[in-house]
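Suppose a colleague, Dr. K., hands you the sequence of a protein chain of 499 amino acids and asks what its three-dimensional shape might be. Before reaching for any lab equipment, you can write down a predicted structure in token form. Begin with the sequence itself:
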Amino acid sequence: MQLELRGITKRFGAFTANDAIDVVVEPGQIHALLGENGAGKSTLMNVLYGLYRAEEGSILLDGVEQHFSGPGDAMRAGIGMVHQHFMLVPVFTVAENVMLGHEPTKAAGVLDLESARARVREISARFGFDLDPDARIEDLPVGVQQRVEIVKALSRDAKVLVFDEPTAVLTPQETDELIGIMRQLKEQGTSIVFISHKLREVRAVADVITVIRRGKVVGSAEPTASSQELASLMVGRAVELTVQKQPANPGDVALSIRGLSARNEQGTVTLDGVDLDIHRGEILAIAGVQGNGQTELANAIIGLLGGLEGSISLEGRELIGRSVKQVLDAGVGFVPEDRSHDGIVKEFTIAENLILDRSDREPFASGLSLKLGTVREFAEQKSREYDVRSQGIETKVGRLSGGNQQKVVLARELSRPLKLFIASQPTRGLDVGSIQFVHEQIVATRDAGVPVLIVSTELDEVVALADRIAVMYQGRIVDVVAPDTSRERLGSLMAGVVA
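The predicted structure, expressed as tokens, is then:
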């Protein structure tokens, strides 16, 4: 089935998310939509899937214009979507999830679960998925859950299948398996739209690449295009994709973690006897699929997690039991994974955000009074140094782009003497140019002799930055390896395979 999006324009108030976008996906083609987070890719697909209604433009399937009032209309027309965050009911079986919304019935309206089971077996056999129709979703690995999402779409005879950032929660091996599945679907005539910001994956699987920047199509490319060329199209200028850094010169152990354990409110173990050392002058990166304890580890160190067992020692001083403010005052810099919730105050100005944790002391305060001149001079200096692009230091941080917000957080955390620097998902949601800047600051911090702990689900980022990589699985450190360890080995560790 041919899909044509013609002149799609979608606005949210004064903001134009999609600006007259034209895309054609041919039958049996894998068409990648490449662009940074916030470029408008997912909005465009939500228009296609009937979740949003475009102000202008049209959707055509095999030349016939379509009018979707909701996802049901899109599905009936042959469009399926595999969402980044799976739309599955954890306590239901595979068959029950697949038939949700179009339940087969027997006489007197009785659910025909056996028919749903047979449909799962038939599609699974066709693609070699090996799915058990009676397995509960909550008991399945993430990669298998994604296959359920694919079967769910195919069970409704989808002729156009949209994959929205499908590798965000997958190990490298699961990503390779997904690419193989997409190729199988293509060979059977399915048209595929593959949304991603990951250059490696797009180049590996796409037949055609359309690049979207700030809501507009800015170019098309063949998969033979270099990563450098694609990155330049994505951000509109030349960028460096590789981190320039010298080998580490690690010193003594600065942070020592022993037997660190924690449970969440439901009583589930989130940290399970973590032992870890970080040396001065090195970058230790935590790798793993999201949800395996990385967030809890960072939060435990900074003082955001209670009920801990074990020890967290920074230069011989115990951190467990201290408040967040006390940990920060002990010399810990922290870039949280959710900057908009935990890293900034959106209604405060750039200047106010830059002194959030020091507004009550010298050199910014004397007694109960702020030294406004000193604050202004400091904010202007850091804005220049970190290239924070704004209308001025009195601009509210909530009005800045994600990259500039992250620069404000970095400038604040790195502008004081540090004994440890923690950065969780430091480049999430940033464009390639901002990523380059953040990486440079992290390496410079290491080179100044500060121990650095990075938590990232982006494996390319982990490999590029790390001097050592600690892999987490189900709350445990399963191994600590060198950054030149193969992706296959790292993927196995991320899946809990230690041998």
